[in-house]
Write a structure and sequence with these properties.
Chain A: Its main location: membrane. The complex is a heterotrimer of chains A (439), B (590) and C (236). Helices cover 40% and strands 5% of the residues of chain A. With 439 residues, chain A is mainly alpha-helical. Chain C has a two-stranded antiparallel ribbon.
Chain lengths: 439, 590, 236
């Protein structure tokens, strides 16, 4: 506890320093800490739907079992969590158990949140209770068909896979002797719940591993979500973070962009609502921690830049499959040398998100485009247009194959059928759900 | 009535700079823009934006004349007629203003341009100034503005190469350029083949070629405000377009992303300001009244400070409509609002290279090129020539596209249609290049702006009336500088050269594009009898109104105006922040 | 088979046609197996003018072809689909003069003070073509489109020179409108219906909507090596 507090010295110092009303100051400091934990836990991403007030829920999760909606977690007594005691609150967050004893859908990452310290839970409760505006708004009804709508199988799931909070906390906080790595482990495995997306899941949708101690499946890359593939955060040279350094990771989590690439899909939200608000110290702790995760795939040859692609394109030699489509559609921003323009237009040469087994992200971004929103430390929004009306499935397959092969990437080709099948997994982009980037 | 500490009228460069500076000072700022929001990601997205018809031809980023225009005449005895179709000049509309559709030529000023009257009198005596020319000084020196030029370049991400920094020669920049306190934030843009050919010929002729300073990023760049630019790839879609690569500086790319994060800042688009409201003494602005153009609802706001930062002549128009100051009367030569309206003398000559050489004119960047300043400003002896002013001469290959090329081909005796025209067009497009004389234009007693007695805008307000034509001094300057192009062209290996210059007696023609670099009309200076604004761009008459833009130029200089406008904006903002806000009132006491 | 779907008369956009590929009605109506065939079918179909009458369209097609004739340099206005382009443009806001100041009074003045007529582009074409054909009949006994090319050229020369007035419209104004729009139709992106097969761009060597010359900024006078691409993705 004491040690945790030492990680938010700035916040504490700011409020403790000058105000004479001491009790109120304590509370304010706690609320500030709670706001920080809420950002680290990225509560907004799931509990604030476009067009609805903050934390009033309503985001739809389309799952194989049906559609479920995130809940109202404002302190409204009827629609929100206003009636929760701190104990109720802690149980829901750490164990996924409602005050009535029923189990939350594991879309709520309680297996990760199990790790939250008592102090952080206390701060989080203070924040949600006293600083979030109560919104008397019901979340939409879940649409899960019977028998899957019954919550008791969830309880079985929880029994089988959700860790007991104290044991979980213990594991996370005692893997490393270095306090920075411990802090990093806490943030990544606990509030950050990175594994919810970046770890593969087992047959019952449980994450294969919840901590660094659980083996190399943990954070080794997840299955596609809404057509975006969460890459491995381990040290694979080609498909993981093997060629990223600590500053790359910190900058990415702070701004969504660095010399290696730019965020897209759900990660942009996670940065916008979450990681950009974390302190430099915490971001470095997370980065240091990620850098010690050994590769899951130990057989990857190192990626080596191949100059052949650029020199062929430069000579207007488009004999390679997809080369002409690349030069007519992609090279303007990503360049003939595939290196892009650092931190503005991401490199395609050696970019780990392009070389994985599943090409869904690449197909998706060509199909739908993407906007990296402005962040506090990087206010520019950067947009890639969509090419859905410009390229046929065959052309997408050709250009994806080109990009996956060029500049030494050497990832496997894909077919028109692959593209058609992948497109079916990608939700229509709904621009009204997005803030229009105004630069 | 809603109140803001400051209201900024117009969301272009000047307005965005002032809004940024004033919110930094802790003021609440409402910025009003008559046009729509603009989003590069939506309407400027690749490849939809690289569309000549929609961009430069149908003019999607420019002012909608159906709502408001001006009337134009050449002389006082004529009836001015409405400017019904966009042609000679192209004011922007929408968030970003002209800063969104500009090319990116980002110059500082020649120190003597800021004190041209004094410089001419020192060298040639007062009698050198022709009868009827209102030659004036700005009232501010280059040394005073230098920190603000420097600041603006670091916001714009300007590419270029210095000649001297703090008095030491550091690079092969413009030898005539004034000394700098630091280098350009980005290295110069690459020379196109055309520009390189011009550079070589100029060097051989003993002139002093330099890379034009360009607000087109030669590298990826993160500016002072954390805003990012992509690097320019010479796609050539600059002037008339929003840059899909985010590599041409614009308020939208370089300032507004940061400004919009400030909770003290509000931008209201589709808000056409009808007038600045004054109190009964006419010496204090109380706020502004605008029309929501989508709902036709009139809204009034109150404010302690009002910044006019619309396009040059819209600023003058608003001052006249709001009755700020005294309208200029050319007969009695009194009054200041509308006085010293100026333009620029720009003529583009054409040079054909041998058929083996392709100029690839579509490859270019709006601000990139090679220029010489040997005939600009006071860099040459005007004594025997008998005129005032000058022109840089440059090859600024900015991305010539085929509709524009086809429209301009032929003429001057050559066929403008038919098979011979086609042959000429193909050859001209593939093998020629343009050399521009981009010159100054002096102010004259009978060249001015006032309100039109007949025509009205869509909101029932009188249109602005422009009285303008070319004068002997400027025609002779233009002819002299253009005459210097012929030998350069020859040295470039020209197979044919078509020199274009103004002719004596040729009136200003509103039908052909010349330049959007209009200036003056509400000029800065040290004498309230001959200037509308003091040297801090503050209205002499209404001290809580500042008027920022090229309207402040007492005469048209040879350089493109944006650099000077941006520096003057930061200069005015600095004095508002450091002096005015502490003790509101006139910053210059007489 | 004429399509009952009026949308098919909208500007020929490959993206638009492709957008239809997923719809059942397209397959039912067209029966095409591949989008490229669908495109080819669309392009090959005779365009039916919407704003202009058949006779006006004949005039336009013939006049544009004289302004930009088919010759050794490349295709002329007819092959490039310029008349189609203009008819389509006249159905856009441009055709209605949406960006022109059209408030009166309308007063004649010196030419250098610019356009002062109370007519938007649609009016200029309707009135101008009617009067030009009447002039042609009066001078040569035939409609303009039925004249030999040298007689057509003589009429256009007279219009350009300003010696003929077409009713309320000075011949020169009509000619300039026609020339301007013809050149637009020859060199605008093919998504607007003209510049068919990017024939205009191929003729002058313009690469279209690729908009990336980073590797080719200065090739020491060599021609840029890659052919054109349209906004739609069409290449040539």
């Amino acid at each position: 506890m004491r040690r945790l507090l030492s990680y938010v010295p700035v916040l504490a110092a700011l409020t403790l320093g000058s105000t004479p009303a001491f009790a109120q100051t304590d509370r304010d400091a706690l609320i500030k800490e709670g706001r920080y934990v809420a950002a680290a836990s990225d509560c907004v991403a799931c509990h604030t739907a476009p067009g609805r007030p903050a934390y009033s829920g309503g985001i739809a999760f389309t799952l194989p079992i049906g559609t479920i909606y995130s809940t109202n977690i404002t302190p409204d007594p009827n629609h929100g969590i206003g009636k929760y005691s701190e104990t109720d609150f802690a149980r829901a967050i750490r164990q996924g158990i409602r005050p009535d004893g029923s189990t939350l859908y594991p879309a709520m990452p309680f297996p990760s949140y199990a790790r939250l310290t008592d102090h952080d839970i206390h701060a989080l409760y203070a924040y949600f209770h006293d600083a979030v505006k109560a919104e008397p708004l019901a979340a939409p009804e879940n649409k899960v068909s019977w028998p899957l709508s019954m919550r008791f199988p969830l309880t079985l799931w929880r029994w089988a896979f959700a860790p007991a909070p104290s044991a979980a906390r213990n594991t996370t906080l005692h893997q490393f002797s270095d306090p920075t790595l411990t802090r990093g482990a806490y943030l990544v495995e606990g509030p950050g719940h990175c594994g919810a997306c970046h770890s593969p899941r087992g047959i019952s949708m449980q994450e294969k591993g919840l901590t660094a101690a659980d083996g190399s499946s943990f954070l080794s890359g997840g299955a596609a979500i809404d057509g975006w593939v969460p890459p491995s955060l381990r040290q694979e040279n080609r498909t993981g973070l093997g060629r990223w350094n600590e500053d790359d990771i910190v900058l990415f989590l702070k701004t969504g962009r660095n010399r290696q690439g730019e965020s897209f899909g759900g990660m942009s939200d996670a940065i916008k609502h979450g990681t950009q608000h974390l302190s430099e110290g915490d971001l470095h702790a997370m980065a240091k921690y990620l850098l010690v995760l050994k590769p899951a795939d130990t057989k990857q040859a190192d990626w080596v830049y191949n100059t052949q692609t650029a020199s062929s394109l430069h000579k207007a030699d488009f004999s390679e499959r997809g080369a002409k489509i690349y030069i007519d559609n992609c090279a303007a921003c990503h360049r003939t040398d595939g290196k892009g323009y650092a931190a503005v237009f991401p490199p395609l040469a050696g970019n780990p998100v392009l070389m994985g087994k599943d090409p869904a992200s690449l197909v998706h971004i060509i199909q739908s485009g993407a906007t990296l929103p402005g962040m506090e430390a990087a206010p520019s929004a950067i947009t890639m247009p969509d090419f859905r009306n410009r390229l046929t499935d065959q052309q997408v397959a050709d250009v994806v194959t080109f990009i996956r092969h060029a500049w030494g990437n050497n990832a496997p080709a894909i077919s028109q059928e692959d593209v058609a099948a992948l497109k079916k997994t990608m939700p229509e982009r709904n621009l009204s759900n997005e803030a229009v980037p105004l630069n | 009535m809603k109140h803001a500490d400051a209201i900024v009228i117009g969301a272009g460069w000047a307005g965005s700079i002032l809004a940024k500076e004033l919110t930094e000072a802790g003021l609440s700022v409402i910025m009003l823009e008559r046009g729509p929001e603009r989003s590069t990601a939506i309407e400027g997205a690749y490849p939809d934006s690289v569309d000549e018809l929609r961009g430069a031809i149908r003019k999607r980023l420019f002012q909608n004349l159906s709502q408001s225009t001006l009337t134009i005449r050449n002389t006082i005895d004529q009836t001015a007629l409405p400017y019904r179709q966009l042609a000679a000049f192209l004011p922007g509309e929408g968030v970003g203003g002209a800063g969104l559709h500009w090319s990116g030529c980002h110059f500082r000023v020649s120190p003597d341009d800021l004190r041209l009257r004094s410089a001419v009198i020192e060298k040639y005596g007062e009698k050198f100034i022709p009868e009827g020319m209102n030659l004036q000084d700005y009232g501010v020196s280059y040394a005073e503005l230098e920190p603000f030029f420097d600041k603006a370049e670091k916001v714009f991400g300007t590419s270029g190469v210095a000649y001297t920094i703090n008095g030491k020669v550091t690079g092969n920049g413009n030898v005539f350029a004034a000394d700098r306190s630091s280098d350009f934030p980005l290295p110069p843009m690459q020379d196109t083949f055309s520009a390189q050919t011009f550079r070589n010929a100029c060097s051989e002729a003993g002139y002093h070629p330099y890379a034009m300073p360009a607000a087109n990023a030669s590298r990826p760049y993160t500016n002072t405000y954390g805003c990012q630019m992509g690097p320019c790839n010479f796609c050539g879609y600059c002037s008339g377009y929003d840059c899909y690569l985010y590599s041409k500086a614009s308020p939208n790319v370089n300032i507004l992303p940061a400004l919009r994060q400030d909770p003290n800042f509000t931008l209201i688009a589709n808000a056409h300001v009808l007038r600045v409201d004054l109190d009964s003494t006419k010496t204090k602005a109380t706020g502004v009244t605008y029309l929501e153009t989508l709902t036709k609802k009139e809204v009034s706001l109150s404010a302690d400070l009002v910044i006019l930062s619309a396009f040059q002549f819209h600023n003058v128009h608003l001052m006249l409509l709001s009755k700020i100051g005294t309208p200029y009367d050319p007969v009695s030569n009194t009054g200041t609002i509308g006085r010293n309206f100026v333009y620029q003398t720009i003529s583009s000559s054409r040079v054909w290279l041998p058929p083996s050489k392709y100029t690839n004119q579509f490859i270019g960047a709006g601000g990139a090129g090679v220029a010489i300043d040997d005939f600009n400003c006071t860099n040459f002896d005007h004594g025997p020539l008998g005129f005032i002013g000058g022109s840089p001469v440059w090859v600024n290959q900015a991305g010539m596209k085929p509709i524009a090329a086809a429209g301009g081909a032929g003429g001057g005796g050559a066929p403008r249609w038919g098979s011979a025209y086609k042959t000429d067009l193909v050859e001209t497009y593939k093998h020629s290049l343009g050399i521009d004389a981009h010159g100054s234009n002096m102010a004259y007693r009978d060249v001015y702006l006032d309100l039109d007695p007949t025509w009205k805008d869509a909101y029932g307000q009188p249109l602005l009336r422009m009285t303008f034509t070319w004068k002997d001094n400027d025609i002779r300057m233009n002819q002299y500088v253009v005459s210097k192009i012929a030998p350069i062209a020859k040295a470039m290996g020209a197979t044919k050269t078509h020199l274009v210059h103004l002719n004596q007696g040729q009136p200003f023609d509103t039908r052909h594009y010349q330049t959007t670099h209009l200036g003056g009309g509400a000029v800065m200076g040290e004498d309230p009898k001959t200037s509308a604004l003091n040297r801090y761009l503050q209205s002499w008459d209404v001290s809580n109104v500042f008027v920022i833009g090229s309207n402040a130029f007492p005469q048209g200089m040879g350089y493109n105006p944006t650099g000077a406008v941006a520096a003057l904006a930061y200069w005015a903002a600095h004095h508002i922040r450091t002096t005015y806000l502490k003790s509101p009132g006139p910053l210059v006491k007489l | 088979m004429p399509s009952p779907d009026p949308d098919l008369h909208n500007p020929l956009r490959r993206s638009f046609v492709k957008g239809l590929l997923g719809t059942t009605s397209f397959w039912m109506l067209g029966g095409h197996a591949l989008w490229s065939q669908a495109l080819a079918a669309e392009a090959a179909r005779t365009y039916s003018p919407t704003f202009l009458t058949a006779d006006e369209y004949r005039f336009l097609d013939a006049a544009c072809e004289r302004i930009l004739p088919d010759d050794h340099n490349g295709p002329g206005a007819h092959k490039l689909g310029v008349a189609e382009f203009i008819d389509r443009q006249l159905q856009t806001p441009y055709g209605h003069g949406d960006n022109w100041y059209m408030s009166g009074p309308f007063v004649e003045g010196p030419a250098n003070l610019g356009y002062q007529l109370p007519f938007v582009p649609r009016d200029l074409y309707r009135k101008g073509i009617t009067a030009a054909d009447a002039y042609s009949k009066q001078q040569h006994g035939k409609l303009f489109a039925d004249l030999p090319t040298d007689a057509q050229d003589a009429i256009l020369t007279a219009l350009e020179g300003g010696s003929v007035k077409l009713g309320e419209i000075p011949g020169r104004v009509f000619f300039e409108q026609l020339r301007t729009n013809t050149l637009e139709g020859a060199f605008a992106d093919p998504i607007y219906g003209g510049n068919r097969g990017m024939g205009g761009w191929l003729m002058v060597g313009f690469p279209g909507a690729r908009a990336d010359f980073m590797d080719w900024v200065n090739q020491d006078g060599a021609a840029y090596p890659i052919g054109p691409v349209s906004i739609s993705g069409e290449t040539a």
